[in-house]
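Q: Structure tokens for this one, please.
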Amino acid sequence: WFSEKALLGTDKGVYVFEVPARATKSQIAGAVLELYKVAPRKVRVVHLPAKKKAMRSQRGVGTRAARHKAYVYLSTGDTIQFA
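A: Here is the predicted structure, written as tokens:
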């Protein structure tokens, strides 16, 4: 999840990922351990509901999809390198 707020958190060891809606905290922690070889200290999951947004078309209003984010907290000294 690349946003300005998410990138500022990487200095403190907090990484943000987009996850499937049915993913649990233990599944997310296991995936991070498997993919990045780093054990997370804590995982928090956030539900972002769908939003109505004004569109520049004849329809007038569109809907932005609902999403799920996971905040993964790492121990001090651990980092995740993105390619």
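A few notes: The chain is about 20% helix and 35% strand. The two ends are 14 Å apart (CA to CA).
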